[in-house]
Amino acid sequence: MTSAPTHPVDDRDPTPVELANCDEATLLGMLDKMEQRHGFVPREISEEISRLVQLRLERIERIRGKLDSTIRRDVQTHVAHWSNEEGNLIMILHAIQNQHGYVPREVAMELSRELGVPLARIYEVITFYHYFKLQPPAKHNVVVCNGTACYLKGSLELLNELRSRLGISEGQTTADRHIHLDVVRCIGCCGMSPALVVDGKTYGRVKTSEVGGILDSVKKQEAKP
Amino acid sequence: MKTLTKADLESLARQQGEGKEWIRVQLDTGGIAAGAETVFAELSRVRDEMKLALPILRVGSVGYSFADPVVEVKCAGMPRILYGRITPELAGRIVREHVVNKRLLDEYVIATRRRSLKLDGPVTQILVRDTGADLGNKTEFFQFSLLEEIKRRGLTERVQVVRAYDMGVYDEGVAVQLLPSGVTYVNVLAQDVARIVAESVVGGRVLDDLLWKESDRQVRVVLRNCGEIDPDSLDDYLRNAQGYQALKRVLCDEKPGFAIAELKTSGLRGRGGAGFPTWMKWQLTGAQKADQRYVICNGDEGDPGAFMDRSVLESDPHSVLEGMIIAAHAMGCSRGYFYIRAEYPKAVERVERAIAQARAAGLLGDNILGSGFSFDAKIRLGAGAFVCGEETALIASIEGRRGSPSPRPPYPSVRGLWQKPTAINNVETLANVPAIVLRGGAWYAQNGTEKSKGTKVFAVTGKVKNAQLVEVPMGTTLRQIVYDICGGVLDDKDIKAVQTGGPSGGVIPDKHLDTPVSYETLQQLGSIMGSGGMLVMDKNDSMVEVAKFYLRFCVDESCGKCAPCRIGGYQMLQILDRISRGRGSADDITALRRICTAMQKASLCGLGQTAPNPVLSTLRYFEEEYKAFIEGGPSYARKISRAQAGEASKETAKAVATP
Ligand SMILES: Cc1cc2nc3c(=O)[nH]c(=O)nc-3n(C[C@H](O)[C@H](O)[C@H](O)COP(=O)(O)O)c2cc1C
Ligand code: SF4
Ligand code: FES
Description:
The structure holds two protein chains of two kinds.
Chain A: H1 16-20, H2 24-38, H3 43-82, H4 89-100, H5 105-115, H6 119-128, E1 140-145, H7 148-152, H8 155-166, E2 172-173, E3 179-184, E4 196-198, E5 201-203, H9 211-223
Parallel strand pairs in A: 1-3
Antiparallel strand pairs in A: 1-4, 2-3, 4-5
Chain B: H1 6-14, E1 22-26, H2 29-33, H3 36-49, E2 56-59, E3 71-74, E4 81-83, H4 88-100, E5 109-110, E6 125-130, H5 139-152, E7 160-166, E8 174-179, E9 183-185, H6 192-202, H7 234-240, H8 245-253, H9 258-266, H10 278-287, E10 294-299, H11 308-315, H12 317-331, E11 335-340, H13 345-360, E12 376-381, H14 391-398, E13 422-426, H15 427-439, H16 441-445, E14 455-462, E15 468-473, H17 478-485, E16 495-500, E17 506-509, H18 519-524, E18 533-538, H19 543-557, H20 563-580, H21 586-602, H22 606-610, H23 613-657
Parallel strand pairs in B: 1-2, 5-7, 6-7, 10-11, 10-13, 11-12, 14-18
Antiparallel strand pairs in B: 1-3, 3-4, 4-5, 6-8, 8-9, 14-15, 16-17, 16-18
The structure holds flavin mononucleotide (FMN), iron/sulfur cluster and FE2/S2 (inorganic) cluster (FES).
């Protein structure tokens, strides 16, 4: 699961090695493509794919089992760390989000059990604060600052450019879950406005014409094994 | 670190003084985003390669955001030199040329603001730059003529002539600064060159007719240590910034009530917005009967586009912590909280470290400095809700709940965190405290106006040449801040307005730019001081769009608890949206005003009460812009928005092109 999947070139059938490196969604997508290309799916390939999907599903099940016990342990550690503190819920949520990049439902449920706090109240808090996320983060995060300084220097231009290049609007993730586009208010670099943050790296004084290049560098990173 | 004692602090007070040679790299969020970490690494690499012993230090930011990353160099026999916009390649050159060959780099020096009227000691470097409107094109010529003159007199070995990046004076023709003294000449003409060299460089006399006599308008109290010390080092704070001397004074040397008395003399008012006298807040909180009291530092800094508090927390966390401990002692609090935005990870990290260091040194914990006073401080993270800057919402958030405000009274000083008396102070307010305790309230009150004493930090951004942090005495005018300190409007356009106070504030049009800044004057103009955001807008910025921008912010951030704010804000936004698309009607302006009044009167908390301010103030000064949208219809609206878009991309392109 760790190595980034390499995507087979579109206009030919994937080799077995390439197949082995794809996740389920890509595999299934590939079936569609092949069907379009050949009008049918070659038997060997469909069999190979169904075998891989099966394997993959089994592995996910195994991981999920393990996850359950790690979730419990992690939540217990966080709760123990903050147990002597009044009003610790928000700090625990910060710890969870730091660990997972979002607050997964199973973890919130476990937390509710550990703290003896109704799940509804935990969700009430999570949804109030913009900082907490309920969706897993995409591989890459592109964040446009729309604080006042950046706004005056044309951050909406940057946002429009990103919207049209990625085909999504802020708060959304591309269909392949590679890029998430978001807007924040002031990242504290107003001296370099307008600013963009891509995977934690800040780009200052960004021109609309540079946006393409920045996205390309994200994609290039992707291509590297 | 071992526990510090009173005696340790006394001996530290006597041995002040910094190292003779160093390179400082300003590593705050802004600097790091601009690449200061790579600059730091490259400086260290080249230094090691050249086998030099020179220390390379991490410090916070002096506030020159426009010049990030900023590096300061001090070498034996040379003046302190600040460099701006340093890249890794330049870092290598700084070591080789500046440190080893004692030659300054052309084009990157930021002239010192410690301008002198006297020439003390022989001139060793001359900085030159054309500060006129047609920026920079006479600089090389003057560098060349100065050099020729220096050569003619056989001084080439002794005096270097350098093109500067920024002179600290603007629109004053060719400016020349003589180092190390800092004597600065302005409006220098070609025929003055020979005179400068003959009289000042050779003769050691100041040329009165060229001399820039105005001293720097900035006075650094809050920012006193920013860029001067390593924010991660308690030792640096103790040795080089009189660290914890004020705390020692309060705990060990003075009678109870000393801090509050000095604060009263100082006239310090809260810097988080409302401007409530700090001494009074402390006295009220301390006077409540309770078994437990709390002090909270409000580091939520919600104004989008302002970064004063972030910069102070990142550059000088111990000063804020020391201020908090003094506050706690004055009120009898045993617990304190820093409430900091989670979006400021560097600030959180540095405050966390400062707290741990103070605890290890016995400056937090039981029986601090043997005085019998015990106190501890902790961090709580905000989670991206503007309304949590409001006191009662902030308290709810620390208690682990949704950050919804509750009605006041009871005020937090009576019933606050966990129902106990609580004093909430802004970061800047607390950072002032050690300086006031150490140097006296009367000293602090020398600066400022009748009712607004002391200095205030502003983050000046937007369409301004040099976006930066500025700390000025209250009573300084907006024009002085924008033009004299920050160099005026980007691309020398006409200024239209300055916005202060963020989403709770308003716009101040150019005709009022000569107003001295204070809590009262800004309020009279329909804005507020706020926490210190200051946005410069040029003639192309549409005030309707600006009002809409701020209002949208408040609508997004409204907690939805009370109807006037929840519904009123939404209605106003719809009207503004209609107007800005050229589909408004004449009645809309009346409707806007009516909703504004309702929101101001009936909202539960400050967010809803102040959210109409941007709308009201733009209506007050720029009603004709609203009318133009209404009368001009959709085609006019499209024209305006196209013009703005074009402007924005052109300007950013230009900003990148400058070195
Ligand atoms: C909506 C709203 C947002 C606020 N945001 C901040 C903030 O970001 N930082 C701050 O120090 N004060 C903020 N305040 C003001 C605080 O409620 C409080 O008055 C202040 O922290 C008190 O500190 P001071 O007396 O030192 O100014 C805000 C107030 C309101 C109504
Ligand atoms: S005024 Fe707005 S932010 Fe304040 S309590 Fe009411 S709805 Fe919430
Ligand atoms: S407004 Fe964008 S960094 Fe501050």
